[in-house]
Amino acid sequence: MMARKKQIFALGSAAAVLVGVLGVPGAQAAEDAPGIDVSNHNGTVDFEAVKADGQEFAFVLATDGTSFTSPDFDTQYKGAADAGLIRGAYHFARPGSGAAADQAQRFLETVNYSADGKSLPPVLDMEANPDGSACYGLSAGEMRDWIKAFLAEVKEQTKRDGIIYTSPSFWKDCTGNTEEFSENPLWIAEWGVDKPSSIGGWDAHTFWQYSDSGSVDGVDGPVDVNRFNGTVDELKALAAGSAARGSAAPRGDVGTAAAITRDEVIDRAKKWSDDPVPYSMENYHDGYRTDCSGYVSMAWRLDTSLSTVTLPDVSHPIEKNELKKGDIIGNLGPGTGGAAGHVVIFEKWANDDKTEYWAYEQTPPETVHRKLTYPYPGKDNFEPHRFDDITD
């Protein structure tokens, strides 16, 4: 990132990386959308040339701390959109010199964020203090509170979960590697590595700034270069508000996940039910496809959105009398792809005869919590399954 002037030692933290690289990291998938981030340091940018050079998005510095506004923000922000790039704005945080809510308010007034389908959620740039103590003189707890207050203001005014830009060293040193913000999209800055580090409980990064020394047509001199953890369509979905984390299907071994408790599964399912998510077989929310199997994948905290065909790869059949909260009931396996398959999350029996049960379900038009007839209304071929890594 760039604040008022280029401060290489602050970008991604010198403790984490010592030098940027020009090449695209080999671990990134070829379809991952590329983009840049710029500030007043970069001056006039020819965004038409940036777009022609294959870039798909651009982040632009809006504000820094309590008083600085980039003189190039309006021109750069509008220029990116006019060139057909997905755009985003970021605030360089100064936690030691002003209240979080005040900095957020000034940032949002400058950006005038609009849910226009071409603007990414507002970005909070959390990196080492370029002018003093790396953590701005704050304890890890104070830093977490500051971040929370800033993001709360963003959420209140834009209804979007703000993106967090940070480096592994800053996050670990200054927040205690907190997992408190793992539902916010992560933009990680880490140079000279083939794959960014895992930090703060995030299942996957959304954006990765992999170098501060990129060469892109339309920008004079070196520029920060990034990859979105997903396709161009998934990037557009994030801008449109139909995905909260970047990658629609965070990459890794298909279906892998850490062990999860039954209570955690229900809590995750309830989140979509309390604030109903529109059903779609194409859109994404919280990084997961918003159909029935994507919903189960989210609740089980898998690293990708499985289908009714592939859910058996991470689960096993059980008997009706073995059902517990967090298990699933559906028609799964070969031949159940697309509209042919369906699955629900079992919560509890609704009667002593076990002929009805309460379930969480992703179904048109949106997520519901409702009572169903066992095994499923009008369907005798639905069977119960249990996630291989669920614990009581």
Automatic annotation (TrEMBL):
The record's CDD domains line, in alphabetical order, gives: GH25_CH-type
Which keywords label this protein?
Glycosidase, Hydrolase, Signal
Hydrolase: present as a keyword of the record? yes
Gene3D superfamilies assigned to the protein according to its UniProt record, in alphabetical order: endopeptidase domain like (from Nostoc punctiforme), Glycosidases
The residues forming a coiled coil are: none
Return the PROSITE patterns for the record: GLYCOSYL_HYDROL_F25_2
* Entry-linked SUPFAM superfamilies: (Trans)glycosidases (SSF51445), Cysteine proteinases (SSF54001)
Q: Which InterPro entries match?
A: GH, Glyco_hydro_25, Glyco_hydro_fam25_subgr, Papain-like_cys_pep_sf
Q: Which domain of life is it from?
A: Bacteria
Task: Check the UniProt entry and state the signal peptide residues, or none.
Answer: 1-29
The record's Pfam families line, in alphabetical order, gives: Glyco_hydro_25
Q: Which family does it belong to?
A: Belongs to the glycosyl hydrolase 25 family.
Q: What is this protein called?
A: Glycoside hydrolase
Q: Which organism is it from?
A: Prauserella endophytica
